[in-house]
Amino acid sequence: MKTLIKTIALSSLLTCSAAAMADQSDYKLMVIETATAPQPLEQSFNSCALNVKSKNYAQAEEICTKAIALLKDADGPKFKVRQLTSYALSNRGVARLKSNNETAALADLYEANQMSNSTMVSHNLNRAKEELSL
Question: With respect to CATH, is domain 2-15+38-131 assigned 1.25.40.10?
Answer without folding.
Answer: yes
